[in-house]
Amino acid sequence: MLRIYCPYCESVRDEDEFHCVGEAHIKRPERPDDLNDQEWGEYLHFRTNPRGEHREIWHHAVGCRQHFNVVRDTETYEIRHVYRIGEEPPHEAVLDE
Amino acid sequence: MTQHYSFLQLIRQAFKHHEGWKPAWNSVEPRDEYDIVVVGGGGHGLATAYYLAKNHGLTNVAVLEKGWIGGGNTGRNTTIVRSNYLRDEAAHLYEFALELWEGLSADLNFNVMFSQRGVLNLGHSLQDMRDIERRVNANRLNGIDGEVLSPAEIQKIVPILDCSPNNRYPVLGASWQPRGGIARHDAVAWGYARAADRLGVDIVEHAAVVDIPLNRNTGAVDGVVIEHAGERKFIRARKVACVTAGNSGVVAALAGLKLPIESRPLQAFVSEPLKPCLDTVVMSNAVHGYLSQSDKGDLVIGAGTDGYNGYGQRGSFEIIEETARAICELFPVFSRVRMNRQWGGIVDICPDACPIIGRMSVPGLYFNCGWGTGGFKATPGSGFVFAHTVAEDHPHPLAAPFSVERFHTGAVIDEHGAAGVAH
Ligand SMILES: Cc1cc2nc3c(=O)[nH]c(=O)nc-3n(C[C@H](O)[C@H](O)[C@H](O)COP(=O)(O)OP(=O)(O)OC[C@H]3O[C@@H](n4cnc5c(N)ncnc54)[C@H](O)[C@@H]3O)c2cc1C
Ligand SMILES: [Zn+2]
Questions:
Q1: Choosing among A14, A49, A73, which should be mutated to test the B contact, i.e. which has the most B CBs within 10 A?
Q2: C-alpha triplet B337, B157, B83: angle, nearest 5°
Q3: Which CATH number belongs to the domain containing residue A78 in this structure?
Q4: Cβ contact (<8 Å) for B410 and A38?
Q5: What is the pLDDT along chain B (423 residues), one digit of tens a residue?
Q6: Max CA-CA distance within chain B?
Q7: What is the ipTM of this complex?
Q8: Closest residue to atom 32 of ligand 1, CA basis
Q9: A88 in contact with B at a CB cutoff of 8 Å?
C-alpha cells in the first residue's frame, strides 16, 4: 500500500483514497490541425513508461478531489516528490527526453 | 537428443527406477552469430522459435532469456484460455490459437494439460447482459462457440455460485464458451522449449539483452549485446525478434524506439488445496475477479491490475482486498478459505488492449508484445503468426491488423470495453 502526501490536504493518506490519472506534463498541441497522423498518434498513445523515475498526475479522489503531480520510482515505488499542478518538478526530477 | 515421450518409454524408464530420464532441453552457451535471435524466453518467445524451426526451416536461432525459461508472465498467469473476443481481428487471432491448443500436446509431445472445461463470463446488470448478447452473437458469426445462459442454467454448471436475486450484484446471466478452459502454464514453456531444442534452436538462460546496436550505414539491427555469466558479449544477428512482455518499453528504448505501452503489475493468488468443487472457469467483470480450481485442488484467483505503472513483480494490497471481496460475493462458501501464495507479473498494456505484432521502423527489428493481461491463451497462435512475420519479413494475414502503425492511422482494435473481462 502506497502512502501518498496530498499537497492540498497537507497530510499523508493511504493509496486507496487516490486515483492515478497517468503521465504528467503532457501538453495538448497548441494547433492540433497542423499535426500529421504521426504526431497526433504520438500525442494520443505514446507514453514514456520508464523503468525508474516517472512523473504522474494523481487525483485525491475520495478526499479533497484535487489533482497534483507526483515523481515516483516505478521500480522501487518510492515517492520522490509531490508538487501542485502548474508547478514545475523539482530540478533533479526533470528527465531528459 | 532428447527422448521421445511415450507409454513405452514410461515402462522402459520404470524398470530403471526413473533414473534414466534426460533433461527436457539444454540451456547452452550462446554462439557469436545467428540468423535470428528471439529476445525473451516466455511462452510467446519459445513458441516463436519453435515455429521458426518447424514451419520455416530456420534453426540457426537463439532464444535469449534474462532469467529462466517461463519465469515471466508465462509462469505467473491464471491460465485461462478462450477465444470469445468481440472484434473480428481479435476473434480470428484468438480462435486460431485455440485451434492450435486443441492439438498442442500431441504436436509438442509434451502434456500441456489443456483442459476444455468451459469458461463463464457473468453479467450482473442489464448493460452487462446486452454486451454479452452482442458478443456471443458476434462470436457465432465468426464460427466461435458460445451461448447465453440464464441464472438457472449457470446454477446447474456451478452449484456453489451464489445466484440468488438478493445479492448486491445479482447474477443475471452469462456467456458460456464450452471449448474454453485452462492449461498448465509451466508445461507450455517447457514443452515449447523442449520442442524447439529438439529442432536445433539454442536456448540461453540468464542472458539479458542490454543493447541493440544499429548499423551506422544502413540503420538496420546488427545484433544484440547480452550480459551473460558476468560478461558482456555481442551476438551478431540479421533479425532481432523481441517478445519481452512488460519490459518491452525498456527493450525498445535500446534501439531508440518508443512503444504505445504502459507496464503495470497484475497479481494472482492461490488458496490451500480443496476437494474438487469447481470444474469450470468463472469470470466476472463487474465485481472484478475470476477463478478456477487446479488439478492440485487449489483455487487459482485473478484480479485487476494496479492502478499505476510499476515494474515490481508483486501487486498492491488494495487489489488483494478488492479481489477477495469479489470472490466472497460470488462464492460465499469460499469466505474462510486461506490463501497460500500471492505474486505479480508485469503486464504490457496497449491503449486498445490488443497486441502489437510486426516489424518496427528499424529494419530487422520485430516486436511481439502488448498482450497485457490476456496473452497466455494466445501463446501458440502468437508464436505461429510472429514466426511467419519474422521469417517472411511480411505480416501473417492474422497479424496484419496488429501492426504498431494502427496507433498512427487510427485503425485501433478496441477490445478494452468489449471483451468479457480482460484476461
Ligand atoms: C497474474 C497474471 C494473470 C494472468 N492471467 C491470464 C489468463 O488467465 N489468461 C491469459 O490468456 N493471459 C493471462 N495473463 C497474461 C499472460 O500471462 C501474458 O500475456 C503472457 O504470458 C505473455 O507471454 P510472453 O511470453 O509474451 O511474456 P513472458 O512470459 O513475460 O516472457 C517475457 C520474457 O522476456 C524476458 N525478458 C525481458 N527483458 C529481457 C531482456 N532485456 N533480455 C532478455 N530477456 C528479457 C523476461 O524475463 C520474460 O521471461 C496473466 C498475466 C498475469 C501477470
Ligand atoms: Zn487532498
A1: A49
A2: 95
A3: 3.30.2270.10
A4: no
A5: 568 999 999 999 999 999 999 999 988 999 999 999 999 999 999 999 999 999 999 999 999 999 999 999 999 999 999 999 999 999 999 999 999 999 999 999 999 999 999 999 999 999 999 999 999 999 999 999 999 999 999 999 999 999 999 889 999 999 999 999 999 999 999 999 999 999 999 999 999 999 999 999 999 999 999 999 999 999 999 999 999 999 999 999 999 999 999 999 999 999 999 999 999 999 998 888 999 999 999 999 998 899 999 999 888 999 999 999 999 999 999 999 999 999 999 999 999 999 999 999 999 999 999 999 999 999 999 999 999 999 999 999 999 999 999 999 999 999 876 554 555
A6: 70
A7: 0.92
A8: B244
A9: no
Question: Which grid coordinates are listed for B361?
Answer: 521502423
Determine contact, residues B86/B418, Cβ cutoff 8 Å: yes
With the most atoms of ligand 1 within 8 angstroms of its CB, the residue from B77, B101, B267, B323 to mutate is B77
Which amino acid type is present at position B47?
A
Kindly state whether A11 is in contact with chain B, defined as any CB-CB distance less than 8 angstroms. Answer: no
Q: How far apart are CA B288 and CA B327, in angstroms?
A: 9
Are B36 and B239 in contact by the 8 Å Cβ rule? The answer is yes
CB pairs under 8 A between A and B: 60
- Number of domains comprising chain A: 1
Closest CA to B422 of B369, B371, B359, B379: B371
> Given CB atoms, is A35 within the 8 Å cutoff of chain B?
no
A2 part of contact set with chain B, CB < 8 Å: yes
Residue from B376, B377, B379 to probe ligand 1 pocket by mutation (most atoms less than 8 Å from CB):
B376
Find the domain containing A58 and state its range. 3-93
